Amino acid sequence: MEAFGLLLHGFTVLMTWKTLAFMMVGLILGVFVGVLPGLGGPNGVAILLPLTFSMDPTTAIVMLSCIYWGALFGGAITSILFNIPGEAWSVATTFDGYPMAQNGQAAEALTAAFTSSFIGSLVAVLLITFLAPGIATFALKFGPPEFFAVYLLTFCSFVGLGREDKHKTIISMSLGLLLAGIGLDTVSGQLRMTFGTTELLRGINFLVAVIGLFGISEILLTMEERLALRGHPAKITFRVVFNVWMDLPRYWMTLLRSSAIGCWLGITPGGAIAASFMGYNLAKRFSKHPEKFGKGAIEGVFAPETAAHASGTAALLPMLALGIPGSGTAAILLGGLLVWGLNPGPLLFIEHKDFVWGLISSMYLGNVVGLVLVLTTVPVFAAILRVPFSAIAPMIVVSCAIGAFAIQNAMFDVWLMLIFGVVGYVFKKVDIPLAPLTLALVLGNRAEASFRQAMIGEGGNLGVFWSNWLVGSITTLALVLLFWPLISLALDRLHGARKVKGRSSAGQT
Amino acid sequence: MAEEADTAAGDQRPVVGTRSVDVVVYLLIFGLAVLLGYDNWRSGAAWEADGPQSGYFPFYLSLLLGAASLYGLADKLFMSAGAGGTFVNRDQLFRVMQVFVPTLLFCALMEWLGLYVASFLLIAGFMWFVGHIAPWKSLLTAFLFSIIMFITFDVAFDVIMPKGPIEAALGR
Asked: What pTM value is reported for the model?
């Protein structure tokens, strides 16, 4: 139980007034960001990142991760009361959450959503606590080839397992990797793709791109759709909370199933959205009353929320242990680590124990405090949505500009943000996914560096990626995932052929 | 801007179809791939004694990007049936421009007037003219928001934003 002792140590790191205060600030800002249309986890964290530049890394990451928890909680408020999913993974929550609100059970739905979010996160945090140190220790054996293989696995799983058209995912990803390559090449010291401009020397900052791609583009889209906000009033009383919690044990199977799905999918990149839908569908399939789903079944709120939060939290596991983010927001937190001068990856567990365990224990505390906070303050946050959008939109634009400028003190970045805003708007409308671009942009340089180090070590022989069983199996798995659509098609054909053959041979005898 | 908002509202005529936008996007991406590919090939995409040259990785990525965009283009032009619906109609485009143009002006003003003055102008102007909110409410909200931002970033967290003549006159 070494992890337990380290966790206790983490709590002692956390227990300073300053850190606790920033934790509260983070949670409140996070719920705020989660509730506002046009903002959400990833861009909320990206915009508020500059606030943390002058803090020490531990306080900074605690505040940022609390913004993340807050945003996750906040997404449920808009889904249930306004039928507007704050995040893509809150879509499944609207299926039953909004009908419940229409039936006058808004308070029950919200309590169910918050509680199941909390349970999902808790399961995932437990997983992180006991699994992450082991994985990190194991990953210490990794050299450049192994790291490149893991990066390859991340990219390939996006292409192979994503629901979007394959060529669109590839466009998004290769564009991200190319943009990451702009500027000074750290291996050779040469300039690449700068076209003689000094502004491009620094390269394209990933956070600037995120603020544009998600923040500005979302404002444009929201204006275009002209959201009419008609929400249901909600006030959560102690009685409602008590009743919902008393009901919880009946749904233990749903909660457990959704947590497991969430943890599993959260570790694979881009999993939270898939997790929430899968959690919902499986709960519906195994439910005793599947006909009630979609009409306001409380189980239909429990299932997707648990899964979404389990996966949102589990996404931090590969980020901490391997330096590979499992979600967009995790990618931004990783960007934060780089800004504070920390090198994400397995060494973090050895060199920065305070940081890692402070973060992990803040996940426990942040979720508990967050749960109490949202249960008590829902009316306040729901009122935000009644503020006219024409007041909120310019404020979001200003916040985005501040965020983009502050990262490198460059006016050029503000223009870049605007360009990315237009690109994000168009990409969203023609269904080119943005998540692969974000991930590629943050991982691009590291992936390339490990590829080149591996190649230099072996004199340019691609065989280095199959030089031992570890790297060989990761690389092979990556290729299998990349070609998974083809492989599963082939397997289906083969299976079908065998079935037909079996039937015909059975007919002969 | 306020009068225009009333006259153009409800105009559902399409400005451009999804298919045309798809084709243009793929063409632009392909153009970008060619440009980046050429630049990387020029800076060296081959192998040296000590490993790949600096253009190696991005060169092959541009090939991948180019190939994927050509596939998308071919898919749109020859394989997908139908026109693919409206990308944006006049009413929608007008609303998008209502927020995009002020944002553009805001970014431009930020360089000359400093962030906080530009932010005041953006918020007050947007609320007043686009949102049709009472002028005093718009001005007050914009003023308070800009002040809060100034205190949070410049004073409390030492994140220094661009300043203009007004801040200079006040000694910041």
From this structure: 0.82
Instruction: Give me A237's structure tokens.
Output: 């009383």
State phi, psi for A184 to the nearest 5 degrees. Answer: -75, 125
Residues of A with Cβ-Cβ distance to B153 under 8 angstroms? 50-51, 402, 406
Count of domains for chain A: 1
Residue-wise burial string across A54-92, b where 16 or more C-beta atoms lie within 10 A, e elsewhere: ebebbbbbbbbbbbbbbbbbbbbbbbbbbbbbbbbbbbb
Question: pLDDT tens per residue, chain B (172 residues)?
Answer: 333 344 444 677 888 888 888 889 999 999 999 998 888 888 877 777 666 777 888 888 899 999 999 998 888 888 766 656 788 888 888 888 988 999 999 999 988 888 899 999 999 999 998 888 889 989 999 999 999 888 888 887 777 788 877 777 776 6
Does residue A111 sit within a domain? yes
In a domain, A509, yes or no: no
Inspect the interface and report whether the beta carbons of A451 and B57 lie closer than 8 Å.
Answer: yes
Q: Which residues of B touch A455 (CB under 8 A)?
A: 51-52
A122 inside domain: yes
Per domain, the residue ranges of chain B are 14-88, 114-169
Nearest to B58 among A193, A195, A411 (CB): A193
Please give, rounded to a whole number of angstroms, the shortest distance from the CA of A311 to a CA of chain B. 30
Q: Is residue A396 within 8 Å of residue A222, measured between CB atoms?
A: no
The answer to whether A280 and A254 have CB atoms below 8 angstroms apart is: no
Q: Is residue A507 part of a domain?
A: no
Q: By the CB < 8 Å criterion, does A197 face chain B?
A: no
Which residues from chain B sit within 8 angstroms of residue A390, using beta carbons? 126-127, 130-133
Q: Give the mutation candidate from A192, A428, A451, A455 for the B interface (greatest B CB count, under 10 A).
A: A192
